[in-house]
Amino acid sequence: MVSRALISAGWLSEVLKARRAPALRVLDATWYSPGSRDAKKEYEERHIPGASFFDLEQCKDQQSPYEMMLPTKSQFAKYAGELGISNESHVVVYDCDNLGMLYAPRLWWMFRVFGHHNVSLLNGGLTNWMKQGFPVTSEATRVTPETFRVTLNQSLLKSFEDIQENISSKRFQLVDTRSKGNFQGPEPKPGEGIEPGHIPGSVNIPFSNFLTKDGYEKPVHEIHQLFQDRGIDLTKPLTATCRCGVTACHLALASFLLGKDDTAVYDGSWSEWFHRAKPEHKVFERRNRA
After folding, report:
1. How far apart, in whole angstroms, are the C-alpha atoms of residue 21 and residue 16?
2. Which pLDDT does position 290 carry in this prediction?
3. Which is catalytic among the residues 59, 96, 242, 249?
4. pLDDT digits (tens, 9 = 90+) for 71-117
5. Residue 289 has pLDDT above 60, yes or no
């Protein structure tokens, strides 16, 4: 079964109240950079009734020097299974960011990478769930562990070597979803350890462009116009990148809503590229203008 990518708060509320979807599993995928806010604590204080916390900080490649790399197939299968997710589950993902949706598309993409397509996003996130007056709770969610089998869909994933090869081959279009400032300058943030810049040949569409001011996904005709304005051909291969592979998933979602279900994500994104690529394969517009 393939679910629609976006579901409304009203739909989710009705299903939860009616208890007519026993296979439904709701996940809070909020994530903050280590050392900042505590996403797990916030979940424990306030979440959608019946939701479990999916810790992106735990379910990742812990050995990688980069911020947010995919876990192995067995790690993901074990983690998801312990949250009561089976291959028959309809997974609904949300996060708590004030933007409406920030981290949840990453988990939506992860499930698809690992072969589970029965996954949806709560349009507008917890912020708009609460604005509409739907309930939240601090009550702990109890689940029964399930067996979750995964199959890696390699076509949705790009590596450093794939991006490196694409600079000359131009096999796919590359879109960077970071802000304009991080894409081209002007200045790095103190203590970041990574300068603004981008991969040669990449096009910039900040992920926030896909969201309304209220935090919902924009209508498909507006999304289509965004791609068109930046010269992106949705009939051709497309890969998304960002800082660490999180907001790039907004582009995968946006193109999915337009019928393109094969947009890949460069998992290491700029955090890996900045440290591994040759100097001539990093574009620093701020520096180049000086």
Report:
1. 8
2. 41
3. 242
4. 999 999 999 999 999 999 999 999 999 889 999 999 999 999 999 99
5. no
Look up residue 210 and give its DSSP letter.
G
Length of the chain: 290
Exposure string over 172-194, b if 16+ CB within 10 A, otherwise e = bbbbbbbbeebbbbeebeeeeeb
Give the separation between CA 148 and CA 283, rounded to whole angstroms: 42
242 is catalytic: yes
How would residue 41 be classed by pLDDT, with cut points 50, 70 and 90? Answer: very high
Enter the tokens of residue 212.
């309304």
**Is residue 48 within a helix (H) or strand (E), and if so which, with residue range?**
none
Q: Rounded to an integer, what distance in angstroms lies between the CA atom of residue 123 and that of residue 137?
A: 19
Mean pLDDT of 21-43: 88
**pTM of whole model > 0.85?**
yes
Backbone φ and ψ of 178, nearest 5°: -75, 170
